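User: For a benchmark we're assembling, each entry needs the component sequences followed by a predicted structure for the full assembly. Here are entry 17's components. Please fill in the structure.
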Amino acid sequence: MHLRALFLRLRALVAPCRVEQELDEELAFHVERDTQRHITNGLSDVDARARARSRFGSLLLAADRCRDVRGTAAVDNVARDVRYAFRTFRRAPLAALTIVGTVALGLGLVAAVFTFFNVFLFRVDAVYNPHELFAVERPASPDEELLRRFTRAEYEALRRETSVFTDAVAMMSGIETRVDGRPVSAVLVTGNFFHVLGAQAVRGRTFTPAENEPSAARRVVLSHEGWLRLLAGDPTGVGRRVSVNGVPCEVIGIMPEDFRGLSVGSPDYWAPLALAADLRPAIAGREGDLALSEVVGRLKPGISPEQATAGLTVWASAAASPDVSAGRPPLIELEPRRGVIADWFELAVLFSPIFFAFGLILMIGCSNVANLLLARGMTRQREIGIRLSLGASRRRIVRQRLTESLVLALAAAACGLLVSRLCLDGVMYAATVTMPGEVLDQSAIDLDVPAADWRVLLFLVAGALVATVFFGLVPALQATRVAPVRPMRGDVGSTGRPGRARNALIAVQVGASALLLICAAVFLRSAAAAAVADVGVRTSDTIRVPIADESRRAAIVGELTADPSVRALAAASGSGQASAFTEAMEDEGAAAPSRRSLPVAYQFVSSEYFELLDINVIRGRDFTNAERTAGTRVAVVSETAARRLWPNGEAIGQAVRIEERQTDAPQSTTLPSPAGAYTVVGVVRDVGGGALFRPFAFSGVYLPIDVQSPGTELFLRVRGDPELVRLALIESLLRIDPALDHEVGTLQMFARMPAYILQLVSWVTVGLGGLALALTVSGLFSVLSYLVEQRARDIGVRMALGATARSVAMLVLSQSFHPVGLGMLTGGGLAAGLATLLLSTPVGTELGNAVRVLDPVAYAVSLLVVVTACALATTIPALRAARIDPIETLRPD
Amino acid sequence: MARQPVPDLLPGTLDLLILRTLQTDAMHGWAISERIQQISQDVLQIHQGSLYPALHRLEHRGWIEAEWAVSELGRRAKYYRLTPSGRRQLTVEADTWDRMVTAISRVMKLA
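Assistant: Structure for entry 17:
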């Protein structure tokens, strides 16, 4: 029964022509049959037909009511509206193209941002039942972010002794290695990793649990990216041997593209955990103590995460080793692991300003379109008036107009996909071309454009719907607000003038462009400031060489010393925090407690360090070549630190005692302890750098060390182009240490990196701001031009009555004064408000040092640009209005 | 002679009349309306504007089905026929109708 109805309905949809024809035929037959009867009763042909027709009543009405029965009216109407929309577009293709183009631009930009957002947040890794996977985390304390890592032994115990997981895997991620000399990232995993995740290799095979054994360790599984990067996508790559940090390994498998091993971006390869001993000789023999970055388990079916947490907490309490501090039970937390960023809130906060900025473009575009539709609504008043008087309901017409908008928006969404791909490719290309080559090969990052999956498409369609409401609803409502009779008489335009809506839209556009331009100006100025900022050390010809493998230090130092392009070599540790006790303080301490201390930063440096990096000695001397250990008990102090430690006296010759601060975790086990008494032999200038970025900033106590001491980085001053020397050095050093640290880089690059990032941001914001302004100006221009055209007769009358060209021009100009002024105020105010809000957050304050969010020059310049552009956009229509010939316009058509 | 006013059909009875008319034979729309008119001795006049929507409605409900066949005029016409479920529906509706008529006439007589 229902099947039958469905069939009839389907038929009405699929073959509407035939159904319609049958309906006509059926009704016609009735009339025909009736006519026949009347003829038989003796009427003439004509009379009989007339009689039959009048008896039947309206054929159209009957047919219509039959159609209603089908229940396909809604679909029919939509189809009719869509057809009607296409007819309208054919009549005004330019308008339709403009609308589609404008909205596509906006949608495409937002979709481009969403594509990234999608990667981080929604693109779940291609593993079997990812919702069952949970990372086991052990927070160091209830309120800290810090996690206490599991060791290999603890992981084995967890697998053995708990029963909440079907199985668990362990990972060590972010391992920097060099494969055949190229810096690549790796994740070390347990042998059951791929098995538990339920991932299959596209080529070759994955690890088996047996591959946990060190003997079988020298095998790697490549990710899709790694395959492309290391084997250039060679389909016969399985079985090839690669050198991982100098250790020959066999490629046994290649993973599919959408498998990322539970991370957001996939590593280049996976290797068994047992390979760790080969990669880091230091841990050989201590594999049980290996700190794992993650333990991930697959929950048994039927066990909730809460139950699992409880079960694991019990296990952890029982197994608690004595080093668990203060009798607090170890906390266990389960974090879902699906290959996306778990902390979506933080990410959403991070992305919201970006979405906002790009969304503004969409909004400005939509405002333009709304304005265009409002204007077209006026020209289409006659059409709408006729439809209304023929009995179309207002709702029907609004629906028709919205359908029209939706068709346009969907077309725009399709083009938007193209726009987003072009944008992403373009930006990636620009980033690749402009990024210092050093950054590219050092960071081992992939500059791949993330693929657009169904979520991006869904996002575009949803965006199209929102855009439709935004640009289509007001014009649709406005356009139908007409008395049907007046436009029929040809009296168009004076009713339902959408002046207020139009002004509001212009204000919104101007405000949004002002906001974006202010951002652009702020970033531009910050980037310019950062580009010339002095970082405080010599960067023109210096190179930093971190040592990854201490066992090769001597060889590396030897090679560097022998290299003719290296002029000088120094070593320095990272800086640490300690407490300093001085004589002066203890003397003063008659009143104050005698053992007062000041916190100071300290750094171990070799004697060549100051000269190599141009850190001038102000008084006294720097370390001599003989002073190469802390045991020589001499120290050099930075200017500011000297003033702090000895506020009213000469620092040189003073004694200072350094003590390690108990609260801080030991910075490095390889460095000597800074504790001890020292005599100050010299004062050097602070390494501060500009107000913005201070990658090398240091002010504190320098202690002597030797270049051969473990835990230090090497600094070189070289001859010739530092970038070329760097490349040559990497090549020669790779022969000594195939696992050479990834970050061998020129100081120039370190110094310029922040400026470069700011520059990227400023380019994007300038692009957005420019686009916003262009859209706004073109919108303003077209609206005013249109108004002048519409009101030509009105203006003609004014001129005929004696208005001067000047006053007419002013009339047109004044049309835009209010909305533009209002928009500038809101834009400027919003920018300042957001900036103040940003500065009030802790992150914002830090950022505020680098980016002067309240830079008055940036505000003034960008607002000036907006005013000038708007003035230009309004002047041309105003001049055109002033040139209107009253005779021409008043002549009846 | 003043014509008796034609009473409007009681709402909902058109479906019943159509189903009843189709009980024995398949008929096209015109024949159905003629038949009803004839049997009711011209008291019930079916408004053509509502006949066809009603027929289509019944068809969509699955109570009648349509078939094109050659008519007495030699031209193709759409013939409607009762389906088994239409037959069941007819029994139900006829029953309801009977009860209603009895009840109303009782009230008219005795109240």
